[in-house]
Design a protein that fits this description.
CATH topology: Lipocalin
CATH class: Mainly Beta
CATH architecture: Beta Barrel
Strand order of the largest sheet: 1-3-4-5-6-7-8-9
Shape: globular
Structural class: mainly beta
Number of domains: 1
Length: 139
């Protein structure tokens, strides 16, 4: 009986000492969770930001569970998002819950409290303006 208990103890020690290899994706360099308010836009042909008044602003709210809400004067959207690490910031795939349309964003952190959102496919479409958002609430 004693050898069986010793073998069981050795097996338990062996399984507890095994390391799990971490194959998860690297952490994104930009944390997007929180509430963000649109503060400026830049047209594709411009090099300077046009600031937006607070009454003409829009908001993105990203939670830690992969859900988002977008609220502006003319539209409201909600759905899910997925973060993909990128060389300069993160890439974000945003899917609306109503009709499963996806948008592709390239997000760069410009300061501790601001992010720049561009169309991920900007090189192809060249039609979307850059948007500058400031964090107004950290979730």
């Amino acid at each position: 009986m004693r050898p069986l208990a010793t073998i069981a103890l050795l097996l338990l020690v062996f399984f507890c000492s095994c390391e799990k290899s971490d194959t998860s994706a690297p952490e994104p360099s930009v944390t997007i969770t929180g509430t963000w308010q649109l503060s400026a836009t830049m047209q594709p042909s411009d090099t300077s930001w046009e600031y937006v008044s607070s009454r003409d602003s829009a908001f993105y709210m990203f939670d830690t569970y992969g859900r988002y809400h977008f609220i502006s004067k003319i539209s409201r959207q909600s759905g899910t998002y997925k973060v993909l690490p990128s060389n300069s910031g993160v890439r974000l795939i945003v899917t609306e819950s109503d009709n499963s349309l996806s948008q592709y964003f390239q997000i760069e952190q410009t300061s501790d409290s601001t992010i720049r959102i561009d169309d991920w496919l900007k090189g192809i479409t060249k039609a979307s303006p850059s948007q500058l958002f400031k964090r107004i609430k950290l979730d």
